[in-house]
Amino acid sequence: MKRTWDRELPWDTGGTWRRVTKFDPVGCALADRHYSRRKPGAPQFMPPGQTLVLVTGNEDAVFGWWRPHPGAKLAAYNGLDGWTCTIFRNEGPRLSSLLILEAERVLEATGYGCGPDGLITYIYDRKIRSSNPGYCFKAAGYQRTGRSKDGRKTLLQKPFDQAGRADRCV
Question: How far is 163 from 106, CA to CA, in rounded Å?
C-alpha cells in the first residue's frame, strides 16, 4: 500500500527496500516487536539526527541507519564517526544478511558519504536468542571490534568501502 509520505528513491529499481520516515506506522509496528524498543507505541522509533529508514515492500522488515546530523557539529555518544544501524528487524523469509547488504547499498546510493569508522551496529548479546548473536551482520561482513561503554553490547563494524559486499552470506 502506497502512502503519501513514502518517498520513492530515484535509484529504486523495484528492490527490496523502500524509504520511509521515522514516523512510518509499519516501521513503528515492527520496531515495537524489537528487543531494543524503549517506548512501544511511540509515534517514532529513531533517534534525532540524520536517518535513513527502510521498510521492505511486503512490510515484514525494517532497517534504520542513523548518525548525528552533519550540520549540528555534534559527535555520537560512542565517539565513532559513521552510520549506525539502530534497528533491524526481519520477520520475513529473506536472509537477514542479504537484507543488510541491500540496506548498505541503499545507503551508499544516497551519496551521503560516511565517516572513518564506517558502518556500525551494536548487538545486545543477552537479549538475542541465538548461540551466535549478530550472526546475520557477521555474515554480511561485519567484524567484532569491541564492546559498548557499559559492556553489555558487542560492537560490530564494517568499512564503508565494503558496503553491499561480503565474502559469505548465509
Answer: 9
What domain range is 112 assigned to? 17-162
DSSP-assigned states of every residue in 32-75: HTSTT-SSTT-S--S-SSEEEEEEETTS-EEEEEEE--GGGT--
How much is the pTM? 0.86
Residues in the chain: 170
Structural domain count of the chain: 1
Supply the CATH number for residue 56's domain: 3.40.630.30
DSSP reduced 3-state for 136: helix
* Alpha helix stretches (DSSP H) within the chain: 25-32, 96-110, 135-139
User: Is residue 169 very low, low, confident or very high in pLDDT (cuts 50, 70, 90)?
Assistant: low
Let me know if residue 87 belongs to a domain: yes
